[in-house]
TrEMBL record:
Coiled coil: none annotated. 8-oxo-dGTP binds at R37, E48, F49, P50, G51, N133. It comes from Halomonas chromatireducens. This is 8-oxo-dGTP diphosphatase. Residues 14-142 form the Nudix hydrolase domain.
Length: 326
């Protein structure tokens, strides 16, 4: 059989496994519960988010409830979809259907003898996980809402509005987007925005040339789709966050190729800022998100009322200027 034929056989015989897994987050939101896989199983010795294979008749959440009872002795009280990851292992195609568990009863322990540990979210990257898991680590660190700042000439108005969003809307992730400012003005505003974000425990990404991180120690860079497409590789260190604006499959593929930690995908709806761009709508959005192995924020006419629907179709949440700019 020729190479092409063999490849086809491999695809045809690969098992498809649907796995439900839990990102159980502590009530203060600072830690996640992970478990160590026994040495004698698939991916033995690696750490994992507890869970397991679904029975054919089970929904993700049903299967997860059963698995968490079996493996940890806990009952899920409140959970929300976090991310779905399709991953090709050499022997199988796996769909990891990950839920964020916000509330549970019982004291978790390794009922199958496995080690179980609460780990601060920032330290998760130090644990060896199966290859499919990277997007889970990114998703669990991210909030459901991504605030993009509006164009604003007046520094005082800018600061009042940013502070309001941080305090009243509890925004924890901010993108400083200010295309109308020159570089010096942008830098000054970035320093001020960073101080406000730090004060309120929020992260700040600069929508700017990645080199600007050498001057302002923000948490990362948000690439415009144009910058994204012009890059050969990740322009900043792994210690910082890299995000990008995307609008289609090609840009999503590029974002994943250069190692973006998350993206926005737009426009869901028509917006006053881009009236000429046709909206993609939820159906196309969902299809693109399903194939993206990284957290995706829905953008374009989104408000916080859309966040639950965005999560239900596989997104991390919503990104918005207007809903937070008051
Ligand atoms: N539970 C879990 N499985 C994961 C993760 N990441 C990942 O690649 N997997 C893979 O997904 C599959 C899950 O199988 P599992 O061994 O947990 O299944 P299970 O609990 O039903 O066990 P069983 O088949 O022994 O009854 C394994 O191939 C595992 O390596 C993860 O974070 N959590
Ligand atoms: Mg399991």
């Amino acid at each position: 059989m020729g190479q092409a034929g063999k490849g086809l056989m491999n695809v045809m015989v690969k098992r498809r496994v649907h796995v439900a897994a839990a990102a159980i987050v502590s009530s203060d939101g600072d830690k996640a519960l992970i478990a160590r896989r026994p040495s004698n199983v698939d991916h033995g010795g690696l750490w994992e988010f507890p869970g397991g294979k679904l029975a054919p008749y089970e929904t993700g959440l049903e299967g997860l409830k059963r698995e968490l009872h079996e493996e940890l002795g806990v009952e899920i009280k409140r959970a929300q979809p976090l991310i779905r990851i399709h991953h090709e292992y050499s022997d199988k195609h796996i769909l990891l259907d990950v839920w964020q568990v916000h509330e549970f009863s019982g004291e978790p322990f390794g009922r199958e003898g496995q080690a179980v540990r609460w780990v601060p979210l920032q330290e998760l990257v130090n644990y060896p996980f199966p290859a499919a898991n990277l997007p889970i680590l990114q998703a669990v660190m991210l909030p459901t809402e991504y605030f993009i700042t509006a164009e604003e000439a007046d520094d005082a108005v800018f600061e009042t509005r940013l502070a309001r969003a941080l305090v009243e809307d509890n925004v924890r992730l901010v993108q400083l987007r200010a295309k109308s400012l020159d570089e010096a003005a942008y830098l000054a505003r970035a320093e001020r925005a960073l101080a406000l974000c730090r004060e309120h425990g929020a992260r700040l990404l600069l929508n700017a040339d990645p080199a600007l991180l050498e001057q302002v120690d923000a948490d990362g860079i948000h690439l415009t789709s144009e910058r994204l497409m012009s890059l050969e590789r990740r322009p900043i260190s792994e210690a910082k966050w890299l995000a990008a604006s995307t609008h289609d499959q090609k840009q999503l593929t590029q974002a994943s190729r250069i190692g973006c930690d998350f993206v926005t995908l737009s426009p869901l709806r028509t917006t006053p800022s881009h009236p000429e761009v046709p909206p993609m709508g939820w159906h196309d959005f969902q299809q693109l998100v399903e194939r993206a192995a990284m957290p995706v924020f829905a953008l374009g006419g989104m408000t916080r009322f859309d966040a639950n629907h965005a999560r239900a179709v596989g997104a991390q949440g919503i990104a918005s200027i207007r809903d937070f700019w008051k």
